[in-house]
Amino acid sequence: MAKHTVTLIPGVGIGPEVANCMCEVVAAAGAEIDWEVQEAGAEAAVKRGSPLPKEVLDSVRKNKIAIKGPTGTPIGGGHRSINVQLRQALDLYVSLRPVKSLPGVSTPFTVGPAGKGGAPGQGAIDLVIVRENTEGMYTGIEHTLVPGVTEAIKVVTEKASTRINEFAFEYAEKMGYPRVTIVHKANIMKVTDGLFLECGRAAARRHPKTEAVEMIVDACAMNLVRNPNRLGVVVTLNLYGDILSDLCAGLVGGLGIVPGANIGSDTAVFEAVHGSAPDIAGKGLANPTALIQSAVMMLDHMSEHECARRVERALRDVYEKGTARTGDLGGKSTSREFTDAIKAAMK
Ligand code: NAI
Known about the structure:
Blueprint: E1 4-9, H1 15-28, E2 33-37, H2 42-48, H3 54-63, E3 65-68, H4 82-89, E4 94-100, E5 126-132, E6 142-146, E7 149-152, H5 158-175, E8 179-184, H6 192-206, E9 211-216, H7 217-226, E10 233-236, H8 238-252, E11 259-263, E12 268-272, H9 289-301, H10 305-321, H11 335-346
Helix pairs in contact: 1-9, 1-11, 5-6, 7-8, 9-10, 10-11
The protein binds 1,4-dihydronicotinamide adenine dinucleotide.
Residues 14, 18, 70-73, 83, 255-256, 271, 274-280, 286-287, 290, 328 line the site of 1,4-dihydronicotinamide adenine dinucleotide.
């Protein structure tokens, strides 16, 4: 197997803890990776004068693959989100979040074996959120017009809307999802969301084998709870995708388990979607599943499919047998015990 160099941004809080677990599991699966460790976030801002130093971007541009833990973002002021900056600087236009139940992790929404496009209440959840990652409400163009009156500018372009919708239909075809649900609010935002919807319809015409469904975002939130498998691949604008993907994480057991990827035309950054969890940071209690599942996506992206399947099988085995389980899912295992259980399951 070829040796790869990957930029690793451990992040803050529980970030370095889950990153260590992930690196151990990936190594135990036989993947040969040189990790180029880079610091980003509030600590980098203090030490190196920028929350996203140039060397971090240079490293990701060179290696074309990165994986990151959570980096804190100050609320209501301070530096812009590292994630948003990375996505915009590297033109990572797709946020891809597969949402799948893990065996043995039951939630009020999961009741049995899985199926793509399954009937209500008849299966473990299996859907994917494809979120536009570079524009919409996340342009960062915000200002105070006069004291007491503020404004944010939402930008939607034909180029970005076309490529994200095209990605969603291609992904559905490749992964065997029968339908794409185009989610918008074009009844209210007729120009911006209207353009996104038009681009979705055009992509649907180019992919006639895949069913295309149009859905307003509020109805989508309800349908995700009532019958999530019916949606297949959900493609949507930046802010809606952000909110809906956390809702979906909740359907399958929470932020500690779902993976994420930010994908551009030649670069990809894989990430745990949870935050730095200051309440449990430094206690060895974090669930490393989200970052490990993100590493599975990364290994597939690098065409290391055997290693990816090895990690995936071991993870599912640990959940199915209940060998180890962390506190967020009702267990008592530490991050170390959970990681050791996955490594043992690979032997
Ligand atoms: P959070 O995701 O850090 O925590 C929410 C709850 O989920 C907490 O109870 C936490 O203990 C739990 N949790 C999260 N991940 C877990 C894991 N892997 N294992 C076990 N439990 C886990 O969200 P919060 O509290 O809103 O944000 C804290 C900080 O993280 C903020 O500074 C925020 O800006 C940052 N953040 C960073 C993100 C990123 O870099 N991708 C994403 C979300 C938040």
